[in-house]
Amino acid sequence: xxxxxxxxxxxxxxxxxxxxxxxxxxxxxxxxxxxxxxxxxxxxxxxxxxxxxxxxxxxxxxxxxxxxxxxxxxxxxxxxxxxxxxxxxxxxxxxxxxxxxxxx
Length: 104
Fold this sequence. Notes:
The protein is an all-beta fold. It contains no helices and eleven strands.
């Protein structure tokens, strides 16, 4: 994810025809810090969650979109479609945020 103003670009493809009208995308963000070794493996605990605000997202679509919501909050997001690209902004990402895209 890029918080510097560049949009996150991904592909939004429903996995099966049974759920073709809904796709869920997840955004994950956390900073790990190297804190030593345990059994030869690096230990990298997540110590602090840095909250990202106004994360711009762009998804390549294969179907027309009906709505975009934050999950599980149920908050509807404003969105724009330009050609086959869906654009929306996730207002706050603190470690994890799911977004549901509903198709027509």
